[in-house]
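Good morning,

Both structures are done.
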Amino acid sequence: MTFPRFDLAAFEAAKGDDRALAAARLDSICQQTGFLVLEGHGVPQPLIDDVWAVARAFFAQEAVAKQAVAPPHKGYPYGYLGPDTEALALSKGVETPPDLKESFNGGPLTVPAGASQAALDFCYRPTSWPDLPGFRPAWEAYYTVMEDLAQRIMRAFAAALQLPEGHFDPLIGRPISALRALHYPATVDAPMDRQQRAGAHTDYGSLTILLPQPGSAGLQVMQGDAWVDVPAPADAFVINIGDLMARWTADRWVSTLHRVIARPGQPARQSLAFFHQPDWDAEIVPLDGSDTYPPVMSGAYLMGKFEATGR
């Protein structure tokens, strides 16, 4: 397949029929593949360079230094997850060996006034910051610009669904999003049976903004009955629809199964994934007014998905 691309800046600048055509094309992509390469994102390259640098420095540390910011107990959402701690295919009910990856995970940068105790006990837990020069400022700067980019994408999504472009704004003013830095170590030997760098899964929320290492390979999406490679061009992000957005659109849009494949002889690979999730107390109801899915609360839905990965 020719992997779909969408220029966000061109859409935002377009008027009249050109804007409507771009929105219709975005709707078609989200119906057919649920994945796209996003160009025209406007994220400054120095900010991207800074977060890449601190992520590389973090994963280059000895294991004991990384474990110093591991979650303090099972079920804690943020911090360092080392090898053999997660199997994403479990979220689809598929038993596999642990994924061949490690990650650092961080949550929202601020806690809104009046947050519920349930939210405080889950998504608003503090992030454990590594003792590395410049790590936290670079991470927080990138997280902040991802929040802004996600809001812009959600406005484009609203237009694609023929809704007012601010339709989602009241539900994403205090998003409970998370940022994950991923490192896939080099694979020397053949993996165990059914083991992948990231097992086949769908993402949980409204959308994911993935920054793959430019030119890297291994991310694949299921199209029909075949796995298709996802490109990793420079100066672009990869966007995909999550389960919550598929539910929100009554399955008009697809949350596509994807994986990071493991083969012998692969070099190390890194990526950054921003998982956008509506406000904790946002009620998600099918936009077409149907009873395809019962209403769910964003926070409770995320907790259930998170617990299904075995973490």
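Second structure follows.
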Amino acid sequence: MTTGNTWHPVSLSHAIEPGTSAGTRLSGEDLVVWRDKSGGAHVWEDRCPHRGMRLSFGFVRGDHIACLYHGWQYDSGGQCRYIPAHPDLEVPKTIKVPVYLIEERAGMIWTALAADAGPLTVAADETGTVPVHSIYVDCSADAAAAALENSKLVPFSAARDAETKIAAVAPSLYAVSAGHDRLLVGFQSLSEQRTALHVVISGLPEVYQGSGQAHFLNWVLGLRYRIENPPKKVVPSPARAVAEAL
């Protein structure tokens, strides 16, 4: 599972409320995900150009985000607009934070680090989505995907023995279904050996909010346990290996 100019989810949409921010990573790059007061989401490099302070430690002020260290404020395009120590200064256009592409689909916030990335191929979910949980595991995205492909989903609204079907529906996005239930699992490669999985239910909120979310949260936590505790390979003792060879 590569990054390059591929889109990746970096948060569940509901986790970033208007006027808030959060730090995260994508392939080793530090990012700030924030939402302005009107609800617009943004993904930027998580570094103030002044002294390198993380912008995710700062504060959202309307459609600006302000650095915690000296209060420098940046507009939704990443341009510095206000320096408290010099309130009358016309801020140079060169003081700007690198910003990344942004889309919201399938209940997740998506970004691509390359400016020439093609369009996001995740289709809008017409039935809506219900957030479940984001988990963070100490393994590569490929290892986490392998564990997912071997998992079994206990459905919420169908017979418990319904067949589990798992398919990649877009780069970094899997669909896991059983019976009438369908989960979407987005993969975020934080680094070579750490991965985030963002999970939503593809379905109507009036059906799944509450008990449905709790049901599938148990599945998500179980998936995390299986990823972090893979079956140990049994290595036969030399004497047993000789005996089996005879």
